[in-house]
Amino acid sequence: MDTWITIIIVLAAGVYIARRFYKGMQKSGGCCSGCSSCGVSADCGTAVTEQIEKIDGL
Amino acid sequence: MIQREYDQNRLYTSDKIDKVVTNRFLGPIIMIAVLMGLYQFTFTYSEMPVVWLENFFGWLGDMATTHIPDGMLKSLIVSGIIDGVGGVLGFVPLIMFMFFGIAILEDSGYMARVAYMLDRVFKAFGLHGSSVMPFIISGGIAGGCAVPGVMATRTLRSPPERLATLLTVPFMNCGAKLPVFILLIATFFPENEASMMFAITLGAWGGALLVAKLLRSTVIKGASTPFVMELPPYRLPTFKGLAVHTWERTWQYIKKAGTIILGIAVILWAMMTFPGLPGSSTAKFEKQRQTVTAQFVPSVVQEYETADEQSELSEQALNLKEQMLALNYQEAEAGLRYSIAGRIGTALEPITRLAGFDWRTNIALVGGFAAKEIVVSTLGTSYSLGEVDPEETGSLSEILAKSPDWGPAVALSLIVFTIFYAPCFVTVVCIAREAGSWKWAAFSMVFNTALAFVLATLVYQIGSFFT
After folding, report:
1. What is the separation of C-alpha B44 from the centre of its chain, rounded to a whole number of angstroms?
2. In this predicted structure, what is the pLDDT of residue B112?
3. Is the peptide bond between B69 and the residue preceding it cis, with omega within 30 degrees of 0?
4. How far apart are CA A6 and CA B104, in angstroms?
5. What is residue B234's DSSP assignment?
6. With an 8 Å Cβ cutoff, are B112 and A48 in contact?
7. Residues linked to residue B174 through DSSP beta bridges, in sequence order
8. pLDDT greater than 80 at residue A40
9. In whole angstroms, what is the distance from residue B227 CA to residue B140 CA?
């Protein structure tokens, strides 16, 4: 039982990671993982403009 | 009727401040002081909350060890999840303080002045003034991300300058690299935390600019283009604005640790656990245990077997305990080395020893290709899997400080390697897309790793003379 639960958790983690990376590669921005700490949640393409505006002060 | 007058010759407050802040001589000194102040503020004020969180994860690990029955699931939860992901989450307060400081610099308008001052430097290295923004977004000060940094190179019009920028932005200290630096600085350089962080920032910038110069004079030749930038006026940051910006970024860090990092940590735990030692090896260790036990009289063996953590053992029982712990440690290490990840780490060891990295560090660095935070979580898991004495458990920082394989020279070497080695997987995909060819993505992986290894080896070999 213990071993089966562990195997299911590991498989679920594998499927989850593969899906996240695959989905990210399909997106225009190429960002899938909710980049750590850049302040961008999912779609880098639009958020980059905001980041540049913040720094550039445009 | 309201009439507003605008005097073109008037010197506004922002202009007056800029005369000092962006001065050719005073500007860089102020910039260095601001950065040092930021790092000092971060390390000083986050020390206590980091210790609290470290203690919390230690308590959580102890609780799980006590209440979950021995087996694979317990190992996954304690070594894979709590010691792995806990190591990354333990730095949340420090990251939060760092983001708060950076939000002040951004919201006040000072970050734009940094970009303006660096433009002069960038030109000398064959980059464009607009390259500064992708660098800062990628973690120029600390705590950005190379993915939006690579995307931000779209603002550059000249293809050679753009390519040189997108190949060098991954050298910046993104938020994912921060836990690695913080862990090593706090463990091996606790007296000079802010200065070390500042030196890492300078090292990343210096390396990126030198590589840019090398690329622009060899494989990416082309003329430089002019740069015009309008500086926004200074503003007093609002508390709400600072709180929102700090929380947004901290939440992204926590979310990534709880999703992507957790998933990869579980997979890496499996790679560090399976296939497990073959029956013949387990039997060999069991036989050695029986040999050790046979050397002691039955009363001593019984005293050792029935003792709990609080019991005081006789000298002979202590001797037996030490020998059994040494055997358990050897078995745990043999199991880890025999695992899939262990074999990869061990295969790389003859080369990476030149830079001071043992097989455990190799596993962490290979895992770091998925995301750089994985370096910390994998080190946590690999040392946790090798732990055999519940009384000797401690934070990853304490374990590294005690380990004979670690020291300031190894820590410095690993810091240098982490700054420069292959960007994470997502960044590589982004580089391929933005450069329009997988050739440049492959170049970025191979060239960066080779450069990182050469630099790390130099640092380790020179550092070993002094330590």
Report:
1. 19
2. 83
3. no
4. 45
5. P
6. no
7. B144
8. no
9. 20
Q: What is the Cα B10 distance to its own chain's centre?
A: 48
| CA B348 from centroid of its chain's CA atoms | 21
Query: Between the CA atoms of B164, B166, B169 and B171, what dihedral angle is there, to the nearest 10 degrees?
Result: -70
DSSP class of residue B158 equals S
By C-alpha distance, the chain B residue nearest A12 is B263
Helices (H) and strands (E) in chain A, counts: 2, 0
If DSSP codes are grouped into helix, strand and coil, which group holds residue B463? helix
How far is B197 from B14, CA to CA, in rounded Å? 30
Mutate to test the interface with A, among B107, B132, B137, B375 (most CBs of A within 10 A): B137
Coil, strand, or helix at residue B253?
A: helix
For residue A30, is pLDDT > 70?
no
Q: What is the pTM of this model?
A: 0.82
Q: pLDDT digits over B222-258, tens only?
A: 887 777 777 888 889 999 999 988 888 888 888 888 8
The pair of three-digit structure tokens given for residue B373, joined into one six-digit string: 């935070």
What band does B287 get if pLDDT is binned at 50, 70 and 90? very high
Q: Which own/partner contact pairs does B19-23 have at CB distance under 8 Å and 24+ positions apart?
A: B21/B110, B21/B113, B22/B113, B22/B116, B22/B117, B22/B231
Of chain B, the percentage scoring pLDDT greater than 90 comes to 31
Check whether B315 has a pLDDT greater than 80.
Answer: yes
Q: What is the DSSP letter of B84?
A: I
How far is residue B175 from each of residues A36, B228, B268, B272, B440, measured CA to CA in Å?
A: 6, 29, 21, 26, 24
Q: Which of B286, B215, B457 is nearest to B356 (CA)?
A: B457
Query: CA of B424: which chain A residue's CA is closest?
Result: A35
Q: Nearest Cβ partner of A2 from B72, B148, B260?
A: B72
The pLDDT of B408-432, averaged and rounded, is 91
CB contact under 8 A, A13 and B266: yes
**Taking CB atoms and an 8 Å cutoff, what residues of chain B touch A21?**
425-426
Query: Which value, in Å, is the radius of gyration of the alpha carbons in chain B?
Result: 26
Interface contact flag, A48 B137, Cβ < 8 Å: yes
Give CA angle at B359 (B257, B427), nearest 5°: 40
